[in-house]
């Protein structure tokens, strides 16, 4: 999808949300998800900053470090949605970083200057080998094999976990699939979302990781 098409699609989504909140009967037949991102007012300023090539600055809340806040001045390039959350992809110096928009505070758009957009980015390639937004290139791309019962298998077939998903076996009793991607925390959390019948065939260390999560959960809930 071209850049202008991404922006058009994003604008359409927000037009729909605005319409749902207005005084008309659209909400009587369009059922919006009740989980909406916090601080979504940053979306439209970021869209305009990306379009008009303006730098932005903000403070960012780090959930993994006791919610400490750190200032950033970045060059915004893309907005990406993942798991009902919006993320900003921006250059901090020479490094592209990902920022959860719900963790951005005090956004400022510097409309007094512009930057030169990086045009050599293959965004599809950037996320090809990961699930969600976390693509740590220091992690290996691995072959994964999973098994589900027939019921869960129907959902996994209709909504593939990843573009690399391939069906190895599809019987009245089970679905077995293969995947090839980096085993990140986001991917493990996705596996656990359908843990009712999940069996990790390989790699062994992922099987052990999932088993340990189950054992710790069992202890907490005994």
Characteristics:
222 residues; alpha+beta; 4-stranded antiparallel sheet; 9 strands; elongated
Overview in brief:
The protein is an alpha+beta fold and about 220 residues long. The chain contains six helices and nine strands.
Describe this structure in words.
It is a single chain. The protein contains six helices and nine strands, in the order ααβββββαβαββαβα. The chain has 222 residues and is α+β, with helices and mostly antiparallel strands. The strands form two sheets. It has a five-stranded antiparallel β-sheet with strand order 4-3-2-1-5. It starts with a helix and ends with a helix. The mean pLDDT is 84.
**Structural class per helix/strand content?**
alpha+beta
Give me the number of helical elements.
6
Order of neighbouring strands in the sheet with most strands: 4-3-2-1-5
The ordered string of helix (H) and strand (E) elements is HHEEEEEHEHEEHEH
Overall number of strands:
9
Strand content: 25-35%
Radius of gyration: 20 Å
Global mean pLDDT:
84
Largest sheet: 5 strands, antiparallel
Shape: elongated
Distance between the termini: 49 Å
């Amino acid at each position: 999808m071209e850049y202008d098409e991404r922006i058009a699609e994003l604008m359409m989504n927000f037009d729909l949300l605005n319409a749902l909140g207005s005084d008309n009967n659209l909400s009587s037949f369009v059922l919006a998800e009740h989980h909406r991102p916090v601080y979504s007012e940053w979306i439209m300023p970021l869209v305009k900053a990306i379009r008009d090539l303006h730098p932005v600055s903000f403070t960012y809340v780090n959930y993994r470090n006791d919610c400490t806040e750190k200032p950033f001045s970045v060059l915004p390039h893309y907005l990406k949605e993942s798991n009902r959350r919006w993320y900003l992809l921006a250059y901090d110096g020479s490094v592209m970083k990902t920022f959860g928009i719900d963790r951005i505070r005090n956004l400022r758009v510097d409309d007094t200057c512009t930057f030169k957009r990086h045009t050599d980015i293959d965004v599809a390639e950037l996320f090809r080998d990961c699930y969600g937004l976390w693509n740590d290139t220091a992690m290996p791309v691995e072959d994964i094999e999973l098994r589900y019962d027939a019921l869960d298998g129907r959902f996994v077939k209709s909504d593939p976990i990843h573009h690399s998903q391939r069906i190895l076996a599809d019987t009245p009793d089970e679905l077995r699939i293969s995947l090839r991607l980096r085993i990140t925390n986001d991917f493990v959390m996705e596996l656990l979302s359908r843990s009712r019948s999940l069996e990790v065939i390989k790699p062994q260390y992922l099987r052990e990781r999932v088993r340990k999560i189950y054992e710790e959960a069992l202890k907490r809930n005994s």
